[in-house]
Amino acid sequence: MVYINDNYLKLKAGYLFPEIARRVKAFTEQNPQANIIRMGIGDVTEPLPQVCIQAMHQAVDEMAHRQTFKGYGPEQGYDFLRQAIAQNDFQSRGAPITPDEIFVSDGSKCDCANILDILGNQNVIAVTDPVYPVYVDTNVMAGHTGQADASGEYAGLVYMRATSENNFVPAIPEQKVDVIYLCSPNNPTGAVFSRQQLTAWVDYARNNKALILFDAAYEAFISDPTIPHSIYEIDGATECAVEFRSFSKTAGFTGTRCAFTVIPKSLQGHTRSGETVDLWRLWNRRHTTKFNGVSYIIQKGAEAVYSDAGRQQIRSLIDHYMTNARLIRESLEQSGLKVFGGINAPYCWVQTPNQTRSWDFFDHLLHKAHVVCTPGSGFGSAGEGYVRFSAFNSRENVQQAMKRVTSCL
Ligand code: MLT
Question: Is the model's pTM score more than 0.90?
Answer without folding.
Answer: yes
